[in-house]
Amino acid sequence: MAPKLLSSSNFKSLFDSVDTFLFDCDGVIWKGDTLIDGVSQTLDLLRSKGKNIVFVTNNSMKSRRQFAEKFRSLGLTSVTQDEIFCTSFAAAMYLKANNFPKDKKVYAIGGAGILEELQLAGFTGLGGPEDGEKKAQWKSNCLFQHDKTVGAVVVGLDPNINYYKLQYGTLCVRENPGCLFIATNRDAVGHMTDLQEWPGAGCMVAAMCGSTEREPIVVGKPATFMMDFLIQKFGTETSRMCMVGDRLDTDVLFGQNAGCKTLLVLSGCTSESNLLDESNKIEPDYYTSMVSDITKLMDSP
Amino acid sequence: MLNRTLVSSSSVSLLPNSKPFFSVKNLSGFRSSSFSGGFIRRINHKPLCVMTPNLTPRAMAAQQLENADQLIDSVETFIFDCDGVIWKGDKLIEGVPETLDMLRAKGKRLVFVTNNSTKSRKQYGKKFETLGLNVNEEEIFASSFAAAAYLQSINFPKDKKVYVIGEEGILKELDLAGFQYLGGPDDGKKQIELKPGFLMEHENDVGAVVVGFDRYFNYYKIQYGTLCIRENPGCLFIATNRDAVTHLTDAQEWAGGGSMVGALVGSCQREPLVVGKPSTFMMDYLSDKFGIEKSQICMVGDRLDTDILFGQNGGCKTLLVLSGVTSISMLESPENKIQPDFYTSKISDFLSLKAANV
Q: FRET label pair with B52: which of A86, A187, B239, B278, CA 20 to 30 Å apart?
């Protein structure tokens, strides 16, 4: 069915059928480090009407705690850490849920957020940002060493990607028996700055697929791993949830895969023409220009 | 085995209103064809990037080489891979010089085809010389050379530039072929700061991005290459090769060109034109250049999914040597679908097997 433009004629039925709103962050709540207009009032309004709010982001650069700080710095002081589901947290939870042994280590190709979440979950992390300074040596008698007790390699967005990290991760995955290859997400690009798109985690993950010849376990959208936590947290049916996002192949697909209602906002990387183009096969239930439209429609008669 | 599909028209995203500004040659044949559309039409011809095992897998299992003379007499040209066949890292494999001399004495043409793009042909010539091997620069075909040769074959305009994500070998070959380039190892020093208001600029006259093995790989290069491919109309995305791992040193494997190419595929969501093995570009080039029939060629290599597949795709005889990355158990594994005609432990078996038959 074709996506419906959110309007006063259909808003109430959506609103009444949903208990929990799941918001993506980049392109929905903020763009880079700038808050999108009207978001604060909309979140407050939803809370005042008794709706649950959570944030589900594929970004793995920060931990939940660091994301909560970002929300606070943008004036969204009501957001707490346990309402935030980012993929750094998801990767650590995946390992926990699968009884990853505490005597094994995790090699991280990505931001500090991954290492922090691993530590919080009781795991030993290696790599991360400091490996951005390391260089490999290739002399006849020089062996590139890697820790044989690494049992998982977690790969996320890494603007400090280099050959050393790719080689380290590759050796772990190829040579440590049973080593897991986990991807936080596979977004090809993202708006890391407000002015243009930049390569996303999908790029680092594909680099590792190229050298390991293996496909990763993906914990971020559109995989529904994070949904399991949300269901447990709220104890509600996914049909009473609405995923609000700006990206069709992650946010909307995630919502659809999990059986939620889906609302696409055009304040991020997807335009109306992208959505309505013949080649697009992913159709959200509804679409609107930005999150603050919810406030406008709530106020209208 | 590799989990990639043949390039199909549905997996290629075409830039809106993009048209190549020159005629693009089909990579599996040297015949020219002009296309006024984008890449989708070209893909209706033979696949450009053959990564899955050959569509007609050989039903017969590889035979252990016993009658070396028969094989030698049945072909006019031997194409040798280098890493794992001639040398391992910087060490010559035992018996190689005598074997090559014997083949030359029998009047055989010898050619060396390597996916390594870090050196130019000239630099490889020096490596052969240092190892005491009598090999001419004209007999060496590295994938750095292949990238430049490909651009020449499609008449890539000299007023367009090439952005290189790779090492010196590619830059040297582009230079020799008269192409302007940007990037290379120097861009490995460039840093970016992702902050509000920062915009990365890129040159609009880059008409091709060549990606190969790159030890100086970084986010700057990935973004630069991505911007060119995505935003410069008709910009080509060329890969020297997609080897997952490579033997940079003889002691261990190292992440290969397949990693850097994978990164660009991940951000651009486009498949590249591959000039190195197993793509047959270099085979077609050689057969054209030397006027040889492919049935008169034997490809000798240590890697099933590049060397042997290259030989099979090209219609040559194939000989796998076990002196490199492939072991007998890998060859005989039920998961392996690529069966060379013959296999033997190393190329000097040509001499010892010969001696045994006397």
A: A187
